[in-house]
Amino acid sequence: MAEAELPTPNSSDPTQSQSPPGMESSPQEKQQNPAPVATTVKFSIWPPSQRTRDAVIARLIDTLSNPSVLTKRYGTVPADEAASTARLIEDEAFAAANGGAAADDDGIEILQIYSKEVSKRMLDFVKSRPSSSAAPTATPADSVDLSVVASSEEAASTVESEA
């Protein structure tokens, strides 16, 4: 196979730009790149998109209406009540974050305020609900009864093994 001949800077290829006679550039000049043009790219995470806000609402509904650490302690919220409450919590948190913080360059501080407001309002809501919806907790009397039953079973098994 014959090797293809590569064009040289002095070849007659019309697509190659050539320096005018007497102004030949040195190899060092060809390797230097022109100074980069400063471009400003701004990345901002505040305000969140509607899609992000909807995802926060969906997560709140899920947390309030399905078994979670929160619902084990404070009780599960019915889905319709959880949906309306989640929207209210998110709207109030968004308004508080928008009004309570000075805009910084990328919105991180405002986003932190928003996140804290959502969490605070969710906890305030579940704590304010009547305790009757919370999971039943054992009373001291129930604990005593259980220990009496357990010791009775141990005594019965000891008697059976001796017989």
Question: How are helices and strands ordered from N to C?
Answer: HHHHHH
Q: Which superfamily, in CATH terms, is the homologous superfamily of the domain at 50-129?
A: WPP domain
> Helix/strand-derived class?
mainly alpha
Mean pLDDT: 74
Helix content: 55-70%
Number of helical stretches of at least 4 residues: 6
Ranges where pLDDT stays below 50 over 5 or more residues in a row are 132-163
Approximate shape: elongated
Number of strands: 0
Please tell me how large the radius of gyration is: 36 Å
Strand content: under 5%
CATH topology of the domain at 50-129: Serum Albumin, Chain A, Domain 1
- Main sheet attributes: strand count, strand direction, barrel closure: none
CATH C-level of the domain at 50-129:
Mainly Alpha
Name of the CATH architecture of the domain at 50-129: Orthogonal Bundle
Distance between the termini: 102 Å
Organism: Trapa incisa
Region (Disordered): 1-37
Domain WPP: 43-134
Protein name: WPP domain-containing protein
Describe the structure.
- The structure is a single chain.
- The chain is mainly alpha-helical and 163 residues long.
- It has a domain at 50-129: WPP domain (Serum Albumin, Chain A, Domain 1, Orthogonal Bundle), CATH 1.10.246.200.
- 57% of the residues lie in helices and 0% in strands.
- It is built from 6 helices and no strands.
- It has helices spanning 27-31, 50-65, 69-74, 79-100, 108-128, 140-162.
- The longest helix is centred in the C-terminal third of the chain and has 23 residues, at 140-162.
- The N and C termini lie far apart (102 Å).
- Mean pLDDT is 74; it is low at 132-163.
